[in-house]
């Protein structure tokens, strides 16, 4: 007789949901919460709404990190405000595009880095939620975009300056385009995004971060250093939590 053993393979979306639900376990009533943006964070926003409706969470104020999250939070009944009214948050929950072993992040592949960095930088605790595909040895290591938000004025000039800045890392800089219509992608703040693709390590992250920010024309970049306080990773073998 043959014995059959079934292996449960979870999809990337299921892993994102598991990480998000785990993070929401850290949410307490009577707190101000930063609500992240993206396909992982949206599970956390939905779950917070659900717990509010069930009366398991009370008196939450959400600070959304994008127009999209604002809309979702309204639709699930989370009361909202902003940083002007709540300059200090208790907790923020958000996804990331890359996470290195020191909990440094790349964010912004969904186009929302500036507001995310403002809100999450104002939070006492910042819980990052990812599936295991987001873990990298060094930032830029996935070979995917490292986003920089720039003002539209003379964006080509800024693009060339950025590419030259990281020529040692084999950087190729590209304006983010909407594939459907060929128009530049426009952020919630009316800016463009220049995506940096790096062949090699960028070098000292703090130096790189400062150098990008010193360039007039740059609004913000997606490198987040020393912001995450907790990382929740969902993988095939379960959930791991790492605190900084
Ligand atoms: O711009 C988007 C944000 O930084 C997202 O948090 C990040 O891109 C991760 O998104 P996702 O959870 O969809 O992978």
TrEMBL record:
Superkingdom of this protein's organism: Eukaryota
Reactions performed catalytically: aldehydo-D-ribose 5-phosphate = D-ribulose 5-phosphate
Keywords: Isomerase
Pathway: Carbohydrate degradation; pentose phosphate pathway; D-ribose 5-phosphate from D-ribulose 5-phosphate (non-oxidative stage): step 1/1
Coiled-coil regions listed: none
Matching CDD domains: RPI_A
Entry's Gene Ontology molecular function annotations: ribose-5-phosphate isomerase activity
Keyword Ribonucleoprotein: no
HAMAP family, per database record: Rib_5P_isom_A
Protein name (Swiss-Prot/TrEMBL): ribose-5-phosphate isomerase
Organism: Daucus carota subsp. sativus
């Amino acid at each position: 007789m043959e014995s059959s053993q079934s292996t449960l393979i979870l999809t990337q979306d299921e892993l994102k949901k598991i990480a998000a639900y785990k993070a929401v376990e850290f949410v307490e009533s009577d707190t101000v919460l930063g609500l992240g943006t993206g396909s992982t964070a949206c599970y956390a926003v939905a779950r917070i709404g659900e717990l509010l409706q069930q009366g398991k969470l009370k008196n939450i104020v959400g600070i959304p990190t994008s127009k999209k999250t604002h809309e979702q939070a309204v639709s699930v009944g989370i009361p909202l405000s902003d940083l002007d009214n709540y300059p200090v948050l208790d907790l923020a929950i958000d996804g990331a595009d890359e996470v290195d072993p020191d909990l440094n992040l790349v964010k912004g592949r969904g186009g929302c880095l500036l507001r995310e960095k403002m809100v999450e930088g104002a939070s006492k605790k910042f819980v990052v939620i990812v599936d295991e595909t987001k873990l990298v040895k060094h930032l830029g290591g996935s070979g995917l975009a490292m986003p920089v938000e720039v003002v539209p004025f003379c964006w080509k000039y800024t693009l060339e300056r950025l590419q030259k800045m990281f020529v040692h890392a084999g950087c190729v800089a590209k304006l983010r385009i909407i594939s459907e219509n060929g128009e530049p992608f426009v952020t919630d703040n009316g800016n463009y995004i220049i995506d940096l693709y790096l062949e090699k390590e960028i070098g000292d992250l703090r130096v790189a971060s400062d150098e990008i920010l010193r360039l007039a024309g740059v609004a913000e970049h997606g490198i987040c250093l020393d912001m995450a306080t907790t990382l929740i990773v969902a993988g095939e073998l379960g959930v791991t939590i790492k605190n900084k």
